[in-house]
Amino acid sequence: MKPFLILLLALWCCSPLFAQKEIPLYDGPVPNARKVADPERMVERGPDNRAFFDTAIPSLTIFQPQHANGKAVVICPGGGYVKTAFDKEGTRVARALLTDSITAFVLKYRIPQDLTNVDRSLAPLQDAQQAIRFVRKHAVEYGVEADKIGIMGFSAGGHLAASAATHFDKMADSNELDTTSVRPDFVVLVYPVISFMDEITHQGSRQHLIGEQPDQAAILEWSNEKQVNAQSPPAFLVHAADDRSVPVQNSIAYYLACLEHDVPVEMHLYPSGGHGFGLYNETTADNWLNRLRNWLKNI
């Protein structure tokens, strides 16, 4: 990154137009957790380009605009359920949303692994549900309207966001007594892993969440296109047709499921761009974030 861009980024991060802080996701003990030393490690691949591996203690990083417009988005970075691309698909996205006065919450969710989780398959969804619960319970504090809280995810983070949008009727933490709704009011899915069906899944994400040899029941449970129903929230999807990591059929399957159940849905498919383009697909002059901004005006 060029020096002047680094300076510009630093000035932006220190801007009085928004406040940023990181907080623990849970006030007390993390549910479904084993008592082991925190194995998290951070890899920094350049300025504003951190990735976190083996996260066991989840957190929310809150980006609060000076004049909140009432909408909030919980952001789930991708990383194949082995890491979170925290800046590329998290904090950079949050800062972009701030330009529209949207309050953003970047979720550093737990990486599913047997070392730190009793049931690794439930840990990320527990965190996503807790993040939505937290935002809804603190809506007044952050200038958010309680019925305008969405969730957004990239790649495997898209699988997590889609899981939150289709599994909200049952608490991932069976011991949770708080009845605050964990249903997101909208969902944004960017080159998402949606399905765990053999034909179109991203094998790495499936393997890390539910194991190398999952049974058919688990595959169906976590194939989110199979879980869409009439109560699922409105959806916005972005994907590139030449994605070789997560086939575009994942987004198409979710889109078709929404149509089947009369769930409002908008999808933008690009002929090229591959996987992991983040905020900017450099193969097109079209800006998917502007399309999202237009869509959010009707939320």
State the gist of this model:
The protein has 299 residues and is an alpha/beta fold. 28% of the residues lie in helices and 22% in strands.
Compile the SSE list and pairings.
Blueprint: H1 3-13, E1 18-24, E2 41-44, E3 50-53, E4 59-65, E5 70-76, E6 83-84, H2 87-98, E7 103-108, H3 123-137, E8 144-154, H4 156-166, E9 186-190, H5 203-210, H6 216-221, E10 235-240, H7 249-260, E11 265-270, H8 288-296
Parallel strand pairs: 5-7, 5-8, 8-9, 9-10, 10-11
Antiparallel strand pairs: 1-4, 2-3, 3-6, 4-7
Helix pairs in contact: 3-4
Describe the structure.
The protein is of the alpha/beta class and 299 residues long. The protein has one domain: Alpha/Beta hydrolase fold, catalytic domain (Rossmann fold, 3-Layer(aba) Sandwich), CATH 3.40.50. The protein contains eight helices and eleven strands. Strands 1-4-7-5-8-9-10-11 form an eight-stranded mixed sheet, sandwiched between helices. Helix 3 packs across helix 4 (156-166). The longest helix is centred in the middle third of the chain and has 15 residues, at 123-137. The termini are far apart. The relative contact order is 0.12. Mean pLDDT is 94; it is low at 1-14.
